[in-house]
Each structure stands twice: as structure tokens, then as C-alpha cells.
Amino acid sequence: MKKIIIAIVFIFSIQFVSACDICGCSTGNYFVGPFPRFHKHFFGTRYTFRSFRSEVANDPTQFSKDFYQTVELWGGWNIGKKWQLLAFLPYNFNKQHSDDTLLKSNGFGDATIMTNYNIFSNRNGFTSSELWFGGGIKLPVGKFAADPNAIVASANNQAGTGSYDFLLNALYVLRMREWSINSNINYKLNGSKNAYKFGDRLSTNIFISRIVGTKFASFSPNIGLLFEHLNANELSNTKVASTGGNGLLTAVGTEVNFGKIIVGTNVQLPISQNLSDGQTTTKVRGMLHLSYAF
Fold this sequence. Notes:
4% of the residues lie in helices and 65% in strands. The chain has 294 residues and is mainly beta.
């Protein structure tokens, strides 16, 4: 019973582990931050980590410290001037250390494919802007083998969600000389598996960056805000208690461009949050990528 209660508290965490997140994503690991600047194509690898701590309400002896890591392949292709294709394939490393047990798992997560359409591009002197709108699908590539007799307790420790999920996405970029503003909003509609449905997720972020050029490389330090809202999970169309919530985070990072080689990183820290009825706290999160643009 003790393990079941803690699992309920943690069920929201799969949103950061098993979706695209794309990024993030995504979800799960579906995190959408500043993409590498590229003219036609890019591909590379990205590492993200998320850490959480939970305590059962009114009983701090029942706790868990969770640490989720993802290494993913990601890429982008611009098709002509109007279309953009993005793809993510994550591999997850999950660690859940509770008051009475240590659980570890790893495996390929769910793949995500997205297509964006350039609604408009405008250039006026030293200022340019563009708006992209699109959507995508998360494919149940990752393993989902939750115990059907205790699905709430075991669903959060799976590599994937077992469902086809759909994403809507909008991206706006404004550039003024060496400055740029990059904002993104996306909504993830989750399917269900074995009558279990992870809550839909809304996430949005905005980053401000500035290009600083040197003889050997160009740097783009950036700072941003991220907001995430997670609906409650459902079992047989009934909401699962102590799941869902929202959080506001700040992010600081930089992109370094060595010609066609791009290295990017950022650290995300919570400003305010209310997850799992206040029983779960998001700690530090971070991202590092190495990409090749051409």
C-alpha cells in the first residue's frame, strides 16, 4: 500500500520522461527550447535531466527522490521555404529512490515527428520575424508493460506511455540586429493504454538571446521563462488523485557556433509550482546538445 501511495504521487513524472517530450520535447522529455540556427538541415544528440522530490502529505517519512535522464537523437529539415520537419528519438534512464526501495530502468522512449508550416516571414531593414505553426504525433516506440492489476502504481516507471499522442505547436521568432526573441507554445493531447491516460499538457516558453561574435566562434547567451500545465491523469475516465499541476521556471544558457558545429546548454530552475497537490517539488533541470547544421 505504501508503494502504491507513492506511485500515485509520482504519476505525473512520466510526462517528463516518456513523451517527446520533444522536449522538451516534451514530452515527457518533450522540451522545446531555442533550436540551433540552421539554414536547411541539422541533426545531433541532446542530453536532458530532471530531478524531483516528493513527500506524502502529513507523512514526510514516505518520500521519494527521482532523477530522470534522457539522451536523444534529434534533427530538423527545412523543405523549401515553407515547411519544416522535426524528429526526436529518446533513450531514457530512470531512477526512483523512495524511503523503502530503489528502482532503476532504462530503454528507448517514444519517438516524435513534427511538421511546421511557415505562415509568414517578414524582413524590414535590420528587423526580421517569422511565424511557424504545425503539429505532430508521438509514436509508442518505448516499452509500456504496466501491471494491469496495479496500473496506477506501475505506469510511471515505464520507458513509454503505450499510446499515440498528438501535438499542436506554434513558434514565433523576432530578430533585431544581434538580438532575438524566440517564443513557443505547444499542446499535447494524450491517448490511453489499458484504460490509463496521462494528462494532456500545455507548455510555453520565451527566450531572449544576443549574438556575440569572435574570431573563432559566435556565442548566443540566452535567458528565458517556461510555463507548464499538466492535467490530471485518468483511469477508466476517472481522475487519479494527486496528479497534474503547473510550474513556472526560469532558464539560463548559451549556444556556441563553431561554423557548422553547434553546442548548446541551459539550466532550468523553478520559480513557482504546484504539483501533485503540493506533494511533489521540481528541482533543477538542464539540457546539453551537440548538433551539426548544414
